TrEMBL record:
PANTHER family: POC1 CENTRIOLAR PROTEIN HOMOLOG, WD REPEAT-CONTAINING PROTEIN 55. WD repeats lie at residues 27-61, 69-101, 111-152, 153-194, 195-236, 245-279, 280-308. Residues 1-24, 371-402 are annotated as: Disordered. Pfam families: WD40. CDD domains: WD40. Keywords: Repeat, WD repeat. The keyword Zinc-finger does not apply. InterPro entries: WD40/YVTN_repeat-like_dom_sf (IPR015943), WD40_PAC1 (IPR020472), WD40_repeat_CS (IPR019775), WD40_repeat_dom_sf (IPR036322), WD40_rpt (IPR001680), WDR55/POC1 (IPR050505). Residues 375-387 have a biased composition (Low complexity). It comes from Tetradesmus obliquus. This is Anaphase-promoting complex subunit 4 WD40 domain-containing protein.
Length: 402
């Protein structure tokens, strides 16, 4: 049973643990903000989409190079990887959806039916269907065996920014700029529930892994959980000046939710305890998308700083346990207050060190690029120095021949 959240709980700072999140790798190669990120089901690759019009496939093994897929004519806003097939989907401002083979050739099939920017793409859990969301105020469902259009879900009065199919394949959920979350019966193609409560556009919606509830994140900074069985609002976090939530991802256990936001942070929410579990700072700009790996032991974030960050250590359910409070029984009140203050300062220090570590990695990347450029510059300089000498030798040979 998910606990009830509270503003006080959200503000609580958690104690640092030995298994705090660690930056496994920072992926750089996009030439503009990275908008979306997704894991390959076998955890060998990470997929990202960007405002640079490209989709990139990153390999976790450093010796394997990344693939850059160019084909979209405008910004890519969403990417997804099929849970059952070797297939990538991407949605773009060019109004198209592309299905890519994650190979060196990067072959793709174009799906066209939307008349506006495609904001979201998501595969069904069985890999047989794809749902897409668009600025044309609709969501559309596609058949993957035939790669053909099936039907449209119409009912929103503004842009549709997010859409997902339920784990059992019977329902769909959509979030829109009209501030509503709508649940659809895919058999009848009709709205069966409509949730209101967000004060601004709904940027992301997603089913709980067991299909019993829905999470929605909004530009007003609020995160809400809706119970499909009782039609009640289960939990509410943020809002009232909080930074806009740009993306979200469930941990496979369903006990934790990962969110990205415009304030550069990535947050992990403990929904059993009803509180913010961890705040991660690493991007040098807005964080625009997040994803848990299929096993939950890794997660990744996409940033406006043109990088994808892959992290490990805290995403496993066994690790994401809230540490028990310190046993201060019998300790004088003044000493207990001092100890609590020290713990709080330690947590702040851990966050600061994590941010410094990310910046150091960024600096190392820049230094590596400079080191690669310097030899090239040296070779060019040597060539320039040799050119006059070679010219002089040629002139001397000509005079000797004469």
């Amino acid at each position: 049973m998910l606990g009830q959240g509270s503003a006080l709980a959200v503000q609580q700072q958690q104690m640092a643990q030995p298994d705090d999140p660690t930056l496994e790798r920072s992926f750089r190669g996009h030439k503009d903000a990275v908008t979306s990120v997704a894991f390959n089901s076998n955890l060998k690759q990470l997929i990202s989409g960007s405002l640079d019009n490209c989709v990139m496939v990153w390999n976790f093994k450093p010796q394997l190079r990344a693939f850059r897929f160019a084909g979209h004519k405008a910004a890519v806003y969403s990417v997804a990887f099929s849970p059952t097939h070797s297939l990538i989907a991407s949605g773009s401002k060019d109004k198209s959806v592309r299905l890519w083979q994650p190979t060196v050739e990067g072959r793709s099939t174009i799906l066209k039916a939307h008349t506006g920017t495609v904001r979201a793409v998501n595969f069904s859990q069985d890999g047989t269907s794809l749902i897409t969301a668009s600025d044309d105020k609709t969501a559309k469902v596609w058949s993957l065996p035939t790669q053909g259009f099936l039907f449209t879900l119409s009912g929103h009065s503004n842009w549709v920014r997010s859409a997902q199919i339920s784990p059992d394949g019977r329902l769909a959920v959509t979030g829109s700029d009209d501030r509503t979350v709508k649940v659809w019966d895919l058999a009848s193609r009709k709205v069966i529930r409509s949730y209101e409560g967000h004060g601004s556009a709904v940027n992301c919606v997603l089913f709980h892994p067991d299909g019993t509830c829905i999470a929605s994140g909004s530009a007003d900074g609020s995160l809400k959980l809706w119970d499909l069985r009782s039609d009640a609002l289960l939990q509410h976090y943020g809002g009232s000046g909080a930074a806009a939530i740009t993306g979200a991802s469930w941990h496979p256990s369903g006990n934790f939710l990962l969110t990205s936001s415009l304030d550069t942070t990535v947050k992990v929410w403990d929904l059993r305890e009803g509180q913010l579990f961890y705040t991660l700072r690493g991007h040098e700009g807005a964080s625009l998308g997040v994803a848990f790996s299929p096993a939950g032991d890794y997660f990744a974030s996409a940033g406006a700083d043109e990088q994808v960050m892959g992290l490990a250590g805290s995403a496993d359910a066994a690790v994401l346990e809230v540490p028990p409070p310190m046993n201060l029984e019998g300790v004088p009140e003044s000493v207990a207050a001092t100890l609590q203050h020290i713990v709080t300062q330690m947590d702040a220090l851990v966050v600061a060190v994590g941010g410094m570590n990310s910046r150091l990695l960024t600096l190392e990347d820049r230094l590596d690029r400079l080191e690669r450029q310097e030899p090239q510059a040296g070779q060019q300089q040597q060539q320039q120095q040799w050119q006059p000498l070679e010219a002089g030798m040629q002139q001397q040979q000509q005079r000797q021949q004469q």
